[in-house]
């Protein structure tokens, strides 16, 4: 009898152990705890990922407490008892800059963080009557200099794919930056058909008299670098004051010439969704409640792109591949037949999502490759399952074998509930995954590396 009890107990222990380790073994990968910070991926330079430590709720709370706990006595800054002092930079007026300087680090092949040296400078550009300033960093990375924003609150810098160039833009124009140099130069033209920005705004105001809509001219909106960084495609409405809507233009950085790519004919709106290669772009046409996708070459020749399902919504464009969803809640990956018929596609992967896709805003440098691995062989996406909308599952798909990996949460020793917050590809096998959890009423984000296809002890 005792032997039966012992045997039954042993079976229970084995089963429980299997239940604990099976989710980790099912992923066939390795988790590495990276940092108790929100590590935001900002650059991929020669396959080296660079991140910075973004502020999160707990950091902002500490800053708020530190500022409210300071006072000046006899010309000396004194910290109230119980308030932890913090280091600040000071602006020209002597006021403390309460946003700490960013710490740039690279993620090594061993999944560790290593410091990256930086040189921070400030650029100025006009925004209406106001002169705006932005902090930019020249980063030295393995003997190469790349550009990155040095201000966590500034999202205006759009870097080229190799990060050796960058642009700022607003409704009045484009400013170009070069890695290793300080300052920004305006590269967009100040007039269109002899008319300035203010001239066109006044024309638009007259046209809109009596309506509630604001009169806004976007000179260079939604700029996207070509894969080789030689050209920029952008949306504008400076040529659409009479018709309404917007058009798409192409700017050549080498020659400084710009050309109409997609002309507005009847008040429709156009927006580029990304480059397929250095010759072709995909753009969306919005008119009277309908939406269509087209492929255009750099000469302006276009052809409609047929995607399956009702109301397809493109998520990512990369290397002749497109990831999109539709009203049937399918996620699809197709490859465009650029060689024979640019308007046709071959389906690579399609699957219904048993939940709601969770697509967060990507970093500017990877806006069109958000879901694809660097070589395009894999796809990753987050969704909230119908069974529980408060959690997020991460799916990784090998587009060659169609094998799928489902991740539900990171391994945790303290058993505090964790939820996937966001992710980025580091290389073809590793993902940077941000995980959120609530501790003492505050949302804390930690950063992890998940290595695909690596079996071993979890490093946490």
What is the secondary structure topology, with strand pairs?
Layout: H1 2-27, E1 30-35, E2 38-45, E3 48-54, H2 57-68, E4 70-73, E5 76-79, E6 89-90, E7 96-97, E8 104-107, E9 113-115, E10 117-127, E11 130-141, E12 144-149, E13 158-159, E14 165-170, E15 173-178, E16 185-186, E17 191-192, E18 195-196, H3 197-207, E19 221-225, E20 231-236, E21 247-252, E22 258-262, E23 269-275, E24 280-287, E25 290-297, E26 302-305, E27 313-318, E28 321-325, E29 330-337, E30 341-352, E31 355-357, E32 378-385, E33 393-398, E34 404-407, E35 419-425, E36 430-439, E37 442-451
Antiparallel strand pairs: 1-37, 2-3, 3-8, 4-5, 6-7, 8-9, 10-11, 11-12, 13-14, 14-15, 15-16, 17-18, 19-20, 20-21, 21-22, 23-24, 24-25, 25-26, 27-28, 28-29, 29-30, 31-32, 32-33, 33-34, 35-36, 36-37
Distance between the termini: 42 Å
Q: Predict the CATH topology of the domain at 195-305.
A: Neuraminidase
Report the C-alpha radius of gyration, rounded. 26 Å
Q: Total number of β-strand segments?
A: 37
Q: Look at the structure and give the CATH class of the domain at 195-305.
A: Mainly Beta
**Oligomeric description of these chains:** single chain
The 3D shape can be described as: globular
Family: Belongs to the TolB family.
Protein name: Periplasmic component of the Tol biopolymer transport system
């Amino acid at each position: 009898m005792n032997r039966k009890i012992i045997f039954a107990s042993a079976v229970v222990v084995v089963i429980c152990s299997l239940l604990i380790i099976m989710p980790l073994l099912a992923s066939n990968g390795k988790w590495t705890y990276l940092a108790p910070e929100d590590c935001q991926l900002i650059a991929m330079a020669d396959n080296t990922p660079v991140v910075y430590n973004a502020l999160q709720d707990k950091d902002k709370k500490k800053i708020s407490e530190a500022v409210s706990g300071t006072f000046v006595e006899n010309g000396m800054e004194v910290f109230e008892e119980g308030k932890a002092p913090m280091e600040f930079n000071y602006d020209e007026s002597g006021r403390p800059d309460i946003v700490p300087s960013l710490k740039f680090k690279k993620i090594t092949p061993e999944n560790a963080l290593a410091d990256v040296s930086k040189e921070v400078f400030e650029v100025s550009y006009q925004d209406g009557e106001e002169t705006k300033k932005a902090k930019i960093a020249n980063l030295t990375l393995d003997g190469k200099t790349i550009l990155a924003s040095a201000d966590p609150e500034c999202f205006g810098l759009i870097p080229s794919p190799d990060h050796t160039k960058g642009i700022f833009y607003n409704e009045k124009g484009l400013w170009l930056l070069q890695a290793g140099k300080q300052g920004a130069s305006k590269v967009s033209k100040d007039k269109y058909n002899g008319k300035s920005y203010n001239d066109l705004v006044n024309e638009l105001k007259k046209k809109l008299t009596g309506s509630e809509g604001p009169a806004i001219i976007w000179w260079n909106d939604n700029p996207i670098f070509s894969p080789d960084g030689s050209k920029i495609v952008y949306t504008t409405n400076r040529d659409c004051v009479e018709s309404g809507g917007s058009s798409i233009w192409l700017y050549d950085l080498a020659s400084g010439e710009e050309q109409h790519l997609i002309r507005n004919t009847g008040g429709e709106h156009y927006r580029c969704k990304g480059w397929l290669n250095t010759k072709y772009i995909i753009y969306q046409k919005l008119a009277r409640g309908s939406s269509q996708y087209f492929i255009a070459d750099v000469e302006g020749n276009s052809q409609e792109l047929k995607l399956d399902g009702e109301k397809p919504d493109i998520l990512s464009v990369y290397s002749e591949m497109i990831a999109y969803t539709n009203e049937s809640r399918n996620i699809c990956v197709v490859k465009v037949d650029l060689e024979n018929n640019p308007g046709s596609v071959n389906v690579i992967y399609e699957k219904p999502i048993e939940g709601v896709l969770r697509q967060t805003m990507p970093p500017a440098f990877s806006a069109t490759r958000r879901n694809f691995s660097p070589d395009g062989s894999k796809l990753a996406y987050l969704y909230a399952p119908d069974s529980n909308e408060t959690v997020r599952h991460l799916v990784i798909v090998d587009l060659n074998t169609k094998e799928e990996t489902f991740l539900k949460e990171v391994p945790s020793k303290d058993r505090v509930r964790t939820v996937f917050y966001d992710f980025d590809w580091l290389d073809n096998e590793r993902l940077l995954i941000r995980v959120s959890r609530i501790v003492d009423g505050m949302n804390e984000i930690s950063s992890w590396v998940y290595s695909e296809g690596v079996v071993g002890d979890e490093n946490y």
